[in-house]
Design brief:
The protein has about 270 residues and is of the alpha/beta class. It is built from eleven helices and ten strands. Helix 4 packs across helix 5, helix 5 packs antiparallel against helix 6 and helix 9 runs antiparallel to helix 10. The protein binds coenzyme A.
């Protein structure tokens, strides 16, 4: 990892790694440098044994105000090399690196979340927002489309009615509405947001890491499959998990439930 980064902070705390967009004076708008920093950090953290769960959030009043209209759009307009490099990094970390991140990821939306920032919200496994957060597909307001892959993200994540409504009107909505339309799992008052994210991270850290990784891959990837493909894929995925899991979670779970009768899988994680 090329720490210290110019535009993000990476903070590790007992298995939880906080990745914090850190341009509060620019509402954490995503500049080319921010894309390079995120691309580097997520690549390194994927292999980092200290990172069990990753929480993505923003410093100050914003989660992220989307792409930096000055540095990402205007200033790269006559610099095709920088435009291409920053576009590649932007697409890679906001989708490929997040979706394939081998540990659970939580988007904690603390404030403004506009345009391009929807991609990383959808790329994380779980998303929680402050009631007071302000979301918006503002692209249409300034004469463009939800580009990158934002239109695809909202078409996949939201109902057709909601995707079309918010993309076409550009109207902002708060964290409660984001929860209602299922852009995020749920929202809580801003004062409780950090505590809530920690609570979820701790629940995730009780699980077998191999089972968690296989679960997120399974749920994400069956979406594009038909029934037969999903059945075949999931059978192969389970075999892969059993073969690869060095903690032998499944055997332990079965034994604690069936032999010792010391444990109820319905109520929580097995004992390690
Ligand atoms: N790109 C570049 N700079 C941005 C930015 C963006 N997306 N969002 C905010 N900033 C900058 C502002 O230019 C300003 O910079 P300055 O102090 O050097 O003038 C600074 O951040 C603060 O922004 P300001 O507009 O004064 O803050 P605000 O709290 O009143 O409003 C927003 C916040 C997010 C509602 C508003 O900045 C905004 O509409 N941003 C654009 C959001 C957008 O359309 N994003 C989609 C991009 S795909």
């Amino acid at each position: 990892m090329s720490e210290p980064y110019q535009t993000i902070r990476v903070e590790k705390d007992n298995g939880i790694t906080w990745v914090i967009f850190n341009r509060p004076e620019k509402r954490n708008a995503m500049s080319p440098q921010l894309h390079f920093d995120m691309d580097d950090a997520l690549g390194a953290l994927a292999k980092d044994d200290e990172t069990k769960v990753l929480i993505l959030t923003g410093a100050g009043a914003a989660f992220s105000a989307g792409q930096d209209l000055k540095e990402y759009f205007r200033e790269t307009a006559n610099n095709p090399e920088l435009r291409e490099k920053s576009q590649a990094a932007s697409n890679r970390w906001r989708w490929h690196r997040l979706v394939h991140f081998p540990k659970p990821t939580i988007a904690m939306i603390n404030g403004y979340c506009f345009g391009g920032a929807f991609t990383q919200v959808c790329g994380c496994d779980i998303a929680i927002a402050a009631d007071e957060a302000s979301f918006g597909l503002s692209e249409v307001n300034w004469g463009v489309i939800p580009g990158g892959i934002v239109s695809w993200n909202i078409a996949e994540m939201l109902s057709h009615r909601d995707a079309m409504f918010y993309a076409m009107t550009g109207l902002p909505f708060d964290g409660r509405k984001a929860a209602e339309i299922k852009l995020v799992n749920y929202s809580v008052p801003l004062a409780q947001l950090r505590e809530e994210a920690l609570k979820i991270a701790k629940v995730l850290m009780e699980k077998n890491p191999a089972a968690l990784r296989a679960t997120k891959e399974a749920v994400r990837h069956v979406r594009g499959m038909n029934h037969d493909q999903a059945q075949q894929y999931l059978a192969a995925k389970l075999s892969e998990l059993v073969a690869k899991d060095k903690d032998k979670g499944m055997q332990k779970g079965l034994s604690q439930f069936l032999d010792d009768k010391s444990y109820r899988p319905g109520f929580g994680s097995l004992k390690n």
